[in-house]
Amino acid sequence: MDTKKVKFPHGIPGHNLSEVEREIPTGEPPAWPINDDLKVVGKRVKRTDALAKVTGAAKYTSDIQLQGMLFGRMLRSNYPHAKIKSIDTSAAEKYDGVYAVHVFKNAVGMAQAKDGGNSAGFPDVKFAGQPIAGVAAISVDVAEEALKLIKVDYEYLPFVVDLEEAQKPEAPVVFKTDVDQEDRGGGGGGQSGLKTKGNLRGPSTSSFFGGPRGDVEKGFETADFIVEHVYRTQVHTHCSLETHGVVVDWRPDNVTIYASTQNTNSVRHEFAEMFDLPKSKVRVITEFMGGGFGAKHSLGNFGVMAGHLSKKSGRPVSMMLDRKEEHISSGNRPNSVQYLKIGAKKDGTLTAIKQKSHGTAGVGLGAGVGRIAQVMYECPNFSTEQYDVFTHAGPGAAWRAPGNVQGAFGLEQAMDELAEKLNMDPLALRDVIDKSDVRKVERQRGAKQFDWSRRKKPGSDSGTVKKGLGMAQSTWPRFVNLNSTVEIRAYKDGAIEVRSGVQDIGTGTKTILAQVVAEELGMKPEDITIRIGDTLFPTGPGSGGSIVTGSITPPARNAAYKLKLELFDQVAKELETVSSKLSMSGGFIVSQEDNSKKIAVKDALKKMRTEQITTSASRSDDYGGFKMGSFLAHGDLGSVQFAEVSVDTETGFVKVDKIVAAHSCGRPLNITQLEGQINGGVIQGVSYALYEYRVMDNETGHQMNGNLDQYKLPFAMEIPEIETIIVEDYGGRSSTDAYGIGEPANIATAVAVANAVYNAIGVRIYELPITPDKVLKALNKI
Amino acid sequence: MVSPIHLKVNGQPRSDEVEPRLLLVYYLREVLNLTGTHVGCDTSSCGACVVLVDGKAVKSCTMLAVQADGSEITTIEGLANGSELHPIQEGFKEQHGLQCGFCTPGMIMTALQLLERNPDPNEAEIREALDGNYCRCTGYHNVVKAIQYAAKKMKKEVFHD
Questions:
Q1: Chain A / chain B CB contacts < 8 angstroms
Q2: Of the residues A327, A434, A554, B142, which has the maximum number of CB atoms within 10 A of its CB?
């Protein structure tokens, strides 16, 4: 490939901004300057999809209504562990208004046992809520009536739903053989090939960041100070306001699936594989989507069931989960019990980090605590052992920075404690052990905005309601998915259209695509039509891992650049110059030699030989290569968050008064949308810190709070003031140099709150959520 | 068994025969195809289904269609005047008061009742009025700004009239 050398901005404006030279493919556009010198990128551009959303015109999957559409519901096991001896669906099939009945032959959407785990042709039941059969009928009510007519003969078996009980030798075993669970488009699963013994699978000791380093025991021998504790986090359910669901429209020639998904590509892949169809005959559409947070990457057992019911009935079938099903079966952030030991020298230098964790993703994999302890700080000696513990409960799923939110709760409390032992300010300790430039700037700017100097000694605030200040940091990799393609069409009437399979799950992908293309073409974002979330268009990445912005915006810009060059070729002669001497701005193509020679883009498009011209581009390799493989980019997405809390020492009630969240994401594309994402991540973090936890009943194996009434989310009155600081951090790694913020926004909040609570009351709380009873216990008041 | 109902929805008279068990929200969504009113839960907790019934904000998952017999219903689809957005809709659009947008119609309808009762609410009053409407994506700060924007604009409009 022919290349050219181009200079890119590099570093952090106001700190160390410089330039870096990169060798890039000749067909790619020149470097953009920093955001100050751009017109629409990096600005507060309004969302392109707001009009549809404020008028009720936006059609979510649950709003899809097709001619002849049926409603599907699933029969779920009321028992957490059972073998199915027989199923009689005859009465349901005859029930008036029922068009199809289907019985699962295999369990879908959970870890798969090597021996299949089937008895009598039916999958074994492994959690209360596991779907067994489904019905499609003229209404939800009729479908539910028909479900009651299905007779299932169970052989009940003992079960266990508690993390610590499940590890005892006498505990009922969930999987009798080794298991694996494939990662579905970034939505979970676990490291393959690990051994299962009893209910324990693992340990996982390595990641793509590598394996253990050095010798931890020797590292502890050289330490002057040791911090050693066990930290506990709860099971947390995603609670997207739109539940999981699909509408499957199975026609003889092709199948159309309307899906509330974060990954149109992965849903198509799974459906095609499951029903043995070529991908060309499966179309997945996600035009508007009501929240996912990691749990909506895969087709799901409901999608498989809807496929069977639509195929059998010959009609479209809508299958939306209800709120209880959403809680018990569609994913959760697994809990954790983490042992963490950290050694340090007097000056703060770390000598060893040792981590051991157990967590349960129920019948799924993915209960590790992430890799934040492995990578955030300089430490020569590191080891981790992370175990999945199986229980008879619904499968876990990815959730914003899977594992890392749990891992940060341990790591960043330990660092807070270490700083105190060393008699150092927590920020000063980070200055010693954290080599990240961007987090250093975030600490400085954040501390100033937050006025960190107000922080008093732990527990020293007077009065009943004590104020406390705390902080915590996070890192998240810059993931890139090269399987990201954008097509741009320019029509004779002047319309510009951007097409990609990538979906906008609410985060603003449509708007940033419009900005990037508008910037390149010298147009306004509102002049660009964005059509995404449809597998008829070129494949886009799944919306997980903060991967979308870094993967899809460079090809969007590159395709726009190609389009621009094609247009230049068409009009150069008329403007009495050559195409390399043309530029595009303000809706005009202008000669750089004589700016009186120009033509409106609209007029140039009228002169095209064909009705439209189409260009496309796929994500190219990072400029200067990757840190690893072709998915892990150089640099990281660092954040530092500061929390201010008030703790009522009489009631134990904690209120988070304020969060200052300092973040970086390469080149920021849309400040307003980034603030929106950070606000959302922070609020979910506050809620994780104080309110939300799944309550399981050990006697029945059922979730006791599988609704939005007793499962507590915050309302508008319960959230803190939030201030955001977005640090521009240029690396010259792609034509946009931009990355996402979804994961980073959520990692540090809960532990920053925990550190602030410690600062307020002088007693540390090692378990989430920090509910009043835990505070009062910590204060020896109950 | 079906029962006749006669009501006005977004100014249009409607007569239908519905099952007595049919919830108002499903009447609006499935019979009238007004899918802007959403369903987020089944415990009247989330507020995605809020509509106005005779001017009062009601969670339409908590009311039967037959109970709305004789009422005037306003849904999100009935708020704009042609292509001219209601100031509250405009506020949500201008102030980035939404992300995925699933909760937005319910938020807007709740805000409508608030501003009709209290045209000049302070921030605490706005937050209190929103107690009963969940947003999971981006939280409430910009929703509050959207309602403040609308309150300001609606006051100006009254003044001009």
A1: 175
A2: A554
pLDDT tens-digit series, residues A665-684: 999 999 999 999 999 999 99
What does DSSP say about strands A654-664 and A721-727: parallel, antiparallel, or unpaired?
parallel
**A278 and A374 part of one domain:** yes
Nearest to A717 among B37, B48, B127 (CB): B127
Mean pLDDT to the nearest integer, A713-727? 97
DSSP string across A505-533 = -SSSHHHHHHHHHHHHHT--GGGEEEEES
pTM of the model: 0.97
Nearest CA in chain B to A722: B141
Neighbours of A699 (CB within 10 A): 7
* Percent of the residues in chain A that have a pLDDT greater than 90, as a whole number: 95
Q: Tens digit of pLDDT for each residue in A167-179?
A: 999 999 999 999 9
Same-domain status, A665 and A686? yes
Cβ distance B41 to A141 less than 8 Å, yes or no, reads: no
In the structure, what pLDDT confidence band is assigned to residue A187 with cuts at 50, 70 and 90? low
The yes-or-no verdict on residue A95 having pLDDT over 70 is yes
B66 to chain A, minimum CA–CA distance in Å? 17
Domain count, chain A: 3
**Mind telling me how many Å the CA of B19 is from chain A's nearest CA?**
11
Contact B35 A322 (CB under 8 A): no
Which candidate from A293, A683, A707 shows the least CB-CB separation from B139? A683
- For residue A155, what are the β-bridge partners? A83
**What are the residues facing A608 on neighbouring strands?**
none
Cross-chain residue pair B36–A47, CB shorter than 8 Å: no
Q: Are A493 and A542 within one domain?
A: yes
- Residues found in chain A: 782
A176: number of Cβ within 10 Å: 12
Mean pLDDT of chain A: 96
- For residues A245 and A304, membership in a common domain is answered with yes
Give the one of A50, A322, A679 whose C-beta lies nearest to B139's C-beta.
A679
First to last CA, chain A: 71
Residue where one domain finishes, among candidates A590, A618, A646: A618
CB A98 within 8 Å of CB A92? yes
In a domain, residue A758? The reply is yes
Contacts of B96 in chain A (CB under 8 A): 46-47, 50, 672-673, 675-676
A467 and A512 housed in the same domain: no
Asked if A56 is an interface residue toward chain B (Cβ–Cβ < 8 A), one would say yes
B48 to chain A, minimum CA–CA distance in Å?
8
Whether residue A401 is contained in a domain is answered as yes
Helices (H) and strands (E) in chain A, counts: 18, 34
CB contact (8 A) between residue A242 and residue B102: yes
Residue ranges in chain B modelled with pLDDT below 50:
none
A546, A664: one domain? no
The answer to whether residues A365 and A465 belong to one domain is no
Segment A12-28, tens digit of pLDDT: 999 999 999 999 999 99
What structural domains and CATH numbers belong to chain B? Answer: 3-78 (3.10.20.30), 87-160 (1.10.150.120)
CATH number at residue A502: 3.30.365.10
Cβ of residue A240 closer than 8 Å to a chain B Cβ: yes
For residue range B123-161, what is the model confidence (pLDDT) as tens digits? Answer: 999 999 999 999 999 989 999 999 999 999 998 877 665
Are A769 and A778 in contact by the 8 Å Cβ rule? The answer is: no
Which has more pLDDT, A578 or A1? A578
Q: Is residue A226 in some structural domain?
A: yes
pLDDT tens column, A394-432:
999 999 999 999 999 999 999 999 999 999 999 999 999
Tokens of residue A649, six digits: 């020492």
Q: Is residue A549 part of a domain?
A: yes
Sign of the dihedral defined by the CA atoms of residues A403, A404, A405, A411, in that order: positive
The share of chain A scoring above pLDDT 70, in percent, equals 99
Q: Do A709 and B43 touch (CB under 8 A)?
A: yes
Print the domain residue range for A676.
436-476+632-782
Q: Is A62 an 8 Å CB contact of chain B? A: yes
* Helix count and strand count (H, E) for chain B: 5, 5
pLDDT digits (tens, 9 = 90+) for A610-647: 999 999 999 999 999 999 999 999 999 999 999 999 99
The verdict on A553 and A467 lying in the same domain is: no
Contact A289 B41 (CB under 8 A): no
Distance CA A118, CA A593 (A): 75
